[in-house]
Known about the structure:
Blueprint: E1 10-14, H1 16-26, H2 28-43, E2 55-58, E3 63-70, E4 74-82, E5 96-102, E6 108-113, H3 115-133, E7 140-144, H4 150-161, E8 165-169, H5 173-185, E9 189-192, H6 196-199, E10 205-208, E11 215-219, E12 229-232, E13 241-243, H7 245-250, E14 252-255, H8 258-264, E15 277-278, H9 279-283, E16 297-300, H10 305-319, E17 326-329
Parallel strand pairs: 1-6, 7-8, 7-10, 8-9, 10-12, 11-13, 12-16, 14-15, 14-16
Antiparallel strand pairs: 1-17, 2-3, 3-4, 4-5, 5-6
Amino acid sequence: xxxxxxxxxxxxxxxxxxxxxxxxxxxxxxxxxxxxxxxxxxxxxxxxxxxxxxxxxxxxxxxxxxxxxxxxxxxxxxxxxxxxxxxxxxxxxxxxxxxxxxxxxxxxxxxxxxxxxxxxxxxxxxxxxxxxxxxxxxxxxxxxxxxxxxxxxxxxxxxxxxxxxxxxxxxxxxxxxxxxxxxxxxxxxxxxxxxxxxxxxxxxxxxxxxxxxxxxxxxxxxxxxxxxxxxxxxxxxxxxxxxxxxxxxxxxxxxxxxxxxxxxxxxxxxxxxxxxxxxxxxxxxxxxxxxxxxxxxxxxxxxxxxxxxxxxxxxxxxxxxxxxxxxxxxxxxxxxxxxxxxxxx
Length: 345
Ligand code: NAD
């Protein structure tokens, strides 16, 4: 008997190479702008989503996580790791891939590399939040931690918030030099700084994006003046923070999904019932964002599944009608659904 294989068996797969082609064809800044809009639209439908803190498997050297969510029509998840020691071994700290499926059939609709996409979506989310919380007319950002995520952060703030100047600091001057070169090419005015304090001079926005598996104190109380917006990216798993408790207590804190951020974010240093504001409510106008000039706002970013869901949907939409994907023979789908065994004969 000849078995026919249905076209449903093929799943579009976006490889790293095709992701690069896709991002280049759109342009990284436009990509992050559009992705920021997609994330905002999904955050405005927040209550529709199944939400759970990510499922994390910790080891002494890092973490491996699954991040699932669904809006009832589509289901998505991302596999992502975080291994701060990896760069010293010539490897990425963060790598990821993800899948989007149709809730009605359960069939996958997209499988994609997500390492680049994670950097793009993290930056798009940061800058989207910056648009709500940063002082109006912000033009200068301090960028502390000049590793893999850093250029994406700076360019998203350029595209979405109008940042023109970035002030870079990293404990490793080579990382700063790499970041500076990439950003100068992209048209930002760049200052290479020797200390974290120097990087904050005249900065309305302070982004911390360091990787160290410990309670690091990148921002101490005396460094932070009134009125700034802090975009804290690197404190994103238990035992890994960047901002001193005193800074948190002086700030109004904004989070993605409190049950996850209380475990993973900088607010793990605060009592469990410490007041925080959920960003979806700010986006819907149900909670206040920045209310006065002296207010310190702080986005305690940990990265939430809905952002990856938005990114997966955005990629699926953008690859339509292109050759930026391969068809992956991923599902056993015999013409007689009950004759799975027949596929072996
Ligand atoms: P990376 O290892 O490529 O870069 C981190 C940089 O931080 C390195 O250049 C390192 O020298 C620097 N650094 C370490 N300690 C420092 C200090 N005390 N002062 C200044 N610089 C310091 O890592 P990456 O891929 O850029 O990721 C950075 C962080 O962001 C990681 O902790 C990662 O887990 C986190 N992250 C968060 C999200 C999110 O959604 N919140 C998403 C992706 C990554």
